């Protein structure tokens, strides 16, 4: 069965490693913080200016001055630190953040990503996404495999304006884990009960399929 | 040096049509809300506003958009504002969208006397169009120029009569860099204290960057996305 958004987040959380600083984007990526594996110590950076982001506050404890990049009220963990936007992006551009997880509208087999604009229809802006994808060495995209019309978002080439070029390493969708290498998608895992055929039918980009494709384990 | 002005009227004295303003804040967090309300009253028009976001429909810079006082916005993210999107898609409003880190660094550079810098952000995208590209360490970078403003209007938690500022939590965001990049920098603070009352070790923005400081009358501090968990 295909995963829900929480399932995608839970699978991505398995990629976390001890001691990493991690930037989580808006949407599904934010949920990754709910599934940190036992024994793994990570700190979350939010680009509006906090390291050591904690859980949402209890009702009544919310503070208008303490938010994440999605403008949600948050709390700070012990040992947290606040800083300005220039320093925040010094951390990002300077590759001091080990993992970036973000959403996308399209991903291409060469690692290109598009997630900020649909010409003539929707322009929200790139926010920090262009800085993040241009500098991060380890980028995981959390997204649904297809759009609302059922068309693949895992493409040979992006059709929307790009956010970054050749930067995505891994994509986790409700159906599969895909690595991007040598200009191709590589099928690494499938969601429990999802067939390779279904993944193939919903993937427009070139997909390398090994003899055995294990199911994700939770 | 005493930087105190008596109120928001005096703080914004000299702001005219066609000026470029920087306004601190991220979403509605850390915005100079008393000054924005005053800009609406003043009715100044054709403003170019440099601010990470454009507020929401009825708060923050959204209030200036409603009155069509803004000619051009320079921002990184403008979602959550229907009037903004309508004015942009209809062509009434000029919009320059900039990657957030480049926006922050361009303001910092403007205040630090650095005219331009190379960054990898935006290479291979629309943002890079018309910009010089150079390779450093085997990777392409684009040339981004510094930003400055006629007035930078920032919001701090505490400030002293010398113009030294301390921000609270993530309300710091763009305020420190913008404070550096204004020809005239106005600081609106929640609490104005005498010189010597702040610990010099803990000041975020040195008063040299601030020309005018005043204590805001009231702060609504509206929350954009109130997310909570229930008490057990």
**Class computed from helices, strands and strand pairing of chain A:** alpha/beta
Question: Percent helix among the residues of chain A?
Answer: 10-25%
First and last CA, distance of chain B: 52 Å
Radius of gyration of chain A: 17 Å
Distance between the termini of chain A: 13 Å
Count of helical regions of chain B: 6
> What's the Cα radius of gyration of chain B?
18 Å
In what order do the strands lie side by side in the largest sheet of chain A?
Answer: 4-3-2-1-5-10-12-13-14-15
In total, the number of strands of chain A is: 15
Structural class of chain B, by secondary structure, is alpha/beta
Mean pLDDT of chain A: 96
Q: What percent of the residues of chain B sit in helical stretches (DSSP H or I)?
A: 10-25%
Give the SSE layout:
The complex is a heterodimer of chains A (218) and B (232).
Chain A (H helix, E strand, L loop, with lengths): L4 H9 L7 E4 L3 H4 L11 E4 L3 E4 L22 E7 L2 H9 L5 E4 L3 E3 L4 E2 L2 E2 L3 E2 L5 H7 L3 E4 L11 E2 L14 E3 L3 E6 L2 E7 L5 H6 L5 E2 L10
Parallel strand pairs in A: 1-2, 1-5, 5-10, 6-11, 10-12, 14-15
Antiparallel strand pairs in A: 2-3, 3-4, 6-7, 8-9, 12-13, 13-14
Chain B lengths: L7 H4 L8 E4 L9 H10 L4 E4 L11 H5 L3 E6 L6 H8 L4 E4 L2 H13 L3 E4 L13 E4 L2 E7 L3 E12 L4 E2 L8 H7 E12 L18 E4 L17
Parallel strand pairs in B: 1-2, 1-8, 2-3, 3-4, 8-10, 10-11
Antiparallel strand pairs in B: 5-7, 6-7, 8-9
Structure description:
The complex is a heterodimer of chains A (218) and B (232). Chain A is of the alpha/beta class. Helix content of chain A is 16%, strand content 26%. Chain A is built from 5 helices and 15 strands. Chain A has a 10-stranded mixed beta sheet with strand order 4-3-2-1-5-10-12-13-14-15, with helices on both faces. In chain A, strands 7-6-11 form a 3-stranded mixed beta sheet, with no helix packed on it. The mean pLDDT of chain A is 96. Chain B is of the alpha/beta class and 232 residues long. In chain B, strands 1, 2, 3, 4, 8, 9, 10 and 11 form an 8-stranded mixed beta sheet that branches. A 3-stranded antiparallel beta sheet of chain B has the order 5-7-6. Chain B starts with 7 loop residues before the first helix and ends in a 17-residue tail after the last strand. The chains are: A alpha/beta (218), B alpha/beta (232). Chains A and B meet through helix 3, strand 9 and helix 4 of A and helix 4, helix 5 and helix 6 of B.
